[in-house]
Amino acid sequence: MPRELTKRREILDAVGRxxxxxxxxxxxxxxxxxxxxxxxxxxxxxxxxKKVGPYVRLLVYEPGEEVVRQGDxxxxxxxxxxxxxxxxxxxxxxxGEERVGEISAGVSFGxxxxxxxxxxxxxxxxxxxxxxxxxxxxxxxxxxxxxxRFGRQLDQTYRKHGLGRTLAEVRQVTGDVFDDxxxxxxxxxxxxxxxxxHHVLFREGDPVDRVYFVRDGWVRRVxxxxxxxxxxxALAAGLDAGAAIDFLGAGNCLGLEGVAAxxxxxxxxxxxxxxxxxxxxxxxxxxxxSLRDAVERAFRDFSDVDEDPRPAPAEDRRATAATEREIATxxxxxxxxxxxxxxxxxxxxxxxxxxHKVHGQSRLLRRGIHIExxxxxxxxxxxxxxxxxxxxxxxxxxxxxxxxxxxxxxFEGGQIxxxxxxxxxxxxxxxxxxYNAISMIPRRASAPQPPSxxxxxxxLLKLAPPQMPASVTETENLLAAKCNLCDNTxxxxxxxxxxxxxxxxxxxxxxxVRVNPREYFAEAGARIGLVYRxxxxxxxxxxxxxDTPALLWHVFGILLTLAVAFAFARWLMRTGLDxxxxxxxxxxxxxxxxxxGLAALAxxxxxxxRKQIYRRRAGPLRYWTLMHVYAGLxxxxxxxxxxxxxxxxxxxxxxxVSFDLTILTxxxxxxxxxxxxxxxxxxxxxxxxxxxxxxxxxELREQLGRIGAETDASLRxxxxxxxxxxxxxxxxxxxxxxxxxxLKTLLAEAREEFEAEAAAxxxxxxxRTLLEAVETAVTLRRVESLVYLHQxxxxxxxxxxxxxxxxxxxxxxxxxxxxxxxxx
Length: 824
What we know:
Layout (H helix, E strand, L loop, with lengths): L2 E3 L2 H10 L9 E2 L2 E2 L2 H9 L1 E3 L2 E3 L3 E6 L4 E3 L8 E7 L2 E6 L5 E7 L7 H6 L6 E4 L4 E7 L2 H5 L3 H27 L5 H10 E6 L4 E3 L7 E7 L2 E5 L8 H5 L7 E5 L4 E2 L2 H4 L7 E4 L3 E7 H5 L2 H11 L17 H13 L7 E5 L8 H10 L5 E10 L7 E8 L18 E3 L5 E3 L9 H5 L6 E4 L10 H7 L18 E4 L20 H4 L6 E4 L1 H4 L1 H4 L22 H28 L13 H16 L1 H6 L9 H23 L6 H35 L5 H20 L3 H15 L2 H9 L4 H11 L1 H5 L4 H32 L1 H27 L1
Antiparallel strand pairs: 1-6, 2-3, 4-5, 6-12, 7-11, 8-12, 9-10, 9-11, 13-20, 14-19, 15-18, 15-20, 16-17, 16-19, 21-23, 21-28, 22-23, 24-25, 26-27
Helix pairs in contact: 18-21, 19-21, 21-22, 22-28, 22-29, 23-28, 24-28, 25-28, 26-28
């Protein structure tokens, strides 16, 4: 471990000896020009009792002592040697290291890990004489960038390292195409540039004078359209039928067709977000034939774009629109993305509840980015995906920008996390996050009382839905909290194999899953260049496309149900219900079916027990749901045979009736879970919580009532007699579910239907009021239709629980009765 020097004079001397940051000690009229910045950086400062800084530490490294290690995630610190030199080495791929250079005093290093969010690309050690080094944390960058020399060097260093890193990657992926001399000449002919959002690289018809290699970010190509900034929605609407549009990500190369001969760009290229580009001058290439040949031969293998020098008309404009939304919202660049398949989501809220149970405060808000994309190209069906407001551990996270203490950063494994010990609760990270994924919670929240055994027992069969915790209202002594991938929780003990997430583990239908977005959103991931196609440190997996255990459960459950039904039916036809199965045996088919049915019911009842387990691993709830369904089917088949054609006495008859009701309500629940979410997603547009829908319904009802109260008698009668009866009727409600029309289409048709009556009214204001009433009534009915679907999703649950409770009570009485008479 390095030795830290803590004396203020030593730290100030070190700062003054480093040229690029010595401006911090600049004086004017006897006072430090940057006095406040210097105080925070070198000593730290108290703001309302909360410590901010210091941002530097002065460390002494012994000879050979390691400063940083290649491959480590060091996204929060960089270094500046003050005395002595540092040796730089890289892995040779065989377990050893190769020394590649040295770092002199005053030359900073490690900024790329901070700025680009990448692991350390080399190992740095103190040389034989040892070294004194300033360790600088991320928050200091905001202040040091104001210093002219440091700002210039930081920009130059980033560009230099970006160019060098790109050249090294080109050398690595092209094998023996580029030798040392060619790589050096390529570096002289190229430049590394960072472009901001909406920058136009070139326009259709401009001469091709550069080769562009996209190292990071996204570019949109548009051909055949005058307005390069036009969006996909405009193209999809048919504003220009001849226009074509596509998107290119990191690893794609543009302009190779201009190396051999003069030509013009066949499309306009626009940067969609912060994008790093490696540009090679074509005149330089033509002046160096060997370099030109090497670039042409090697760069064509980076991607498939060169085989299609202009964007082709989209096969399915919906897929193109989905791709643009995935890129524009940034979800494609997450490293661990939480997605919800809304066609499977039953709106139970168990994911948010599980997050609350594990962390004490839920970090999962079921609102967010909605993406609709075709299930297959050219098909009519669509997939509705919601990326909820939860941390996606971005490649270029904005939340790290404003933190004054460096509490939030990229930690081991590449995930973004918050150190509660250094967080001061300022809320800057929550403000900066564009996805509303960071919450402010009380630092010292009151500990909840552990539930009693009666509470835990009643929770197994309770009818009421689980109550979500109350909203945080405290404003003092807060702490920033966000998804940390369930690290350091009982969900992921050190001895565990594989990583688990409480939200995913406790989803009953498998609607929610963490994924690699570039694999999940294949329409965008396929636009990544071949050389960068697999470059991601995402942890998730895609079970929406391929969930093998669930498939095996379905196969096993169906086969088991059929096998049990066939075996007992055949046995029953041969021996009857009450004949002994052997001369010395007391077993009959009735006894055997009773035992098997009882065992299946015991297996069924393990599901409500599992549903109460949130804080530790107990197997994904979606597999328990399948077990619950298929064990219930087996129990239903066997116990129906057990009852035979004679119902017996009153208690036995009630037992069979309650058992039938349990089966019927359970099958109703399965049908609701399979059908209703798909109906809901097809008509709701943006997914909304039922609380939001109810609030919107009340608002629309109040608005419609106000329209009726504030109008004259004739218009009020027209609204009541025609508008309300037409759009608040049962047939119009059923139309929402049967035809599933877009709300805009419904509104346009409704306005057209009442246009003649509106034209007959005297005065412009009356006509506007009538059309407003029509639009309000149509929207209200659409919102009500969604509220009813939410209610239907839970309507079956209460009868099912009541029937199950009654069945279990009667079954206990029945078993006691049977045992009593059998023993007697």
